[in-house]
Amino acid sequence: MTGPSSKNRRRASRPGAPAVSLIRRRPFFVLSTLLLLALVAASWGRVLTQGGSGPGLLSAEAWRRAGEFVADLAGAGEPGRPAFLVWDSWRGALRLAGDTLVMSVLAAGLAAAGALATIAFGASNLAGRGSVAGRGLVAVTRGVYILTRAVPELVWALIVVFVFSPGVLAGAVALAIHNFGVLGRLGAEIVEDIDPAPVESLRTSGAGRVQLLFYGVLPQVMPQFVTFLLYRWEVIIRTSVVVGLVAAAGLGYQFRLDLAFFRYSDVALLLIVYVLLVWAADLASVGLRKLAR
């Protein structure tokens, strides 16, 4: 004796039945997925074969240009020794790397100071507790965080150079403004996840807002906040070269000059120093995070 359930099982066991069922139940999802895959395939086909206004990625012309550029980086077209084999060039590049490191540390410090000064106003369990004015303050603070992190560091650098003279300070301020929004949001979310018992105990004993912050909130927040700060410092190190293109400071500015004057072996030297700087910053960040725990 066979009932409706056995018929459904036989229908489901047929080859291709799940696909047909999915198309019938969700035609828009299936069609949009197929259209997306077709667009991706067509886009990659154009890039690999034509490349827009230049040669495609798979064309012989593109590979010939890439080979010539790598040879230029190695100093094949220069009359003398490549820059990465000259000690004076290394000394100048390391000095620029020091400027880049100073820019990143200053930016991380400014961003952390701004975030720590405002995270209590961006946490709903502190500033937004039980009053309309408090909830409004939380909304305004979160809005500032969104604005500062939504604008990229390079755009902030273009704005900051009109206020400060081009240099390390301008680059640091541009990086700090963007990362202030990132660290502020992360810090406010950490505050909202803290254990409320110590804060409530201090509040019932008559502690003020400043005492609540320094004795009930910051001791719980600081270990995780320092970890996030070190992660952001790694990102700042990588971004500082791009900001230096606009702020006229550090490795980024010299990188732009060497490319403009076709000093390709100097470009190779700057790339080597930059990789070493990022590698050293990553090692230092790992060690500092272990200490923070």
Largest sheet: none
How many domains in all? 2
Report the end-to-end length measured between terminal Cα atoms: 67 Å
Instruction: State the CATH class of the largest domain.
Output: Mainly Alpha
Q: Architecture of the largest domain, according to CATH?
A: Orthogonal Bundle
Q: Specify the number of helices.
A: 12
- Beta-strand content: under 5%
Would you tell me the structural class of the helices and strands? mainly alpha
Rg for CA atoms = 28 Å
By CATH's scheme, which homologous superfamily of the largest domain applies? MetI-like
SSE arrangement, N to C? HHHHHHHHHHHH
Low-pLDDT residue intervals, each spanning 5 or more residues: none
Write down how many β-strands occur, each being a DSSP E stretch of 2 or more residues.
0
Please tell me the overall pLDDT: 80
Shape: globular
CATH fold-level topology of the largest domain: MetI-like fold
Helix content: over 70%
Outline the secondary-structure elements.
Elements: H1 4-12, H2 17-25, H3 27-49, H4 60-73, H5 87-122, H6 132-150, H7 153-160, H8 168-192, H9 196-204, H10 209-247, H11 250-260, H12 264-292
Task: Please supply descriptive tags for the structure shown above.
293 residues; mainly alpha; globular
What do you see in this structure?
By secondary structure, the protein is mostly helical. Helices cover 79% and strands 0% of the residues. It has twelve helices and no strands. The protein has helices at 4-12, 17-25, 27-49, 60-73, 87-122, 132-150, 153-160, 168-192, 196-204, 209-247, 250-260, 264-292. Helix 6 (132-150) crosses helix 8, helix 7 crosses helix 10 (209-247) and helix 11 (250-260) packs antiparallel against helix 12. It is globular, with a radius of gyration of 28 Å.
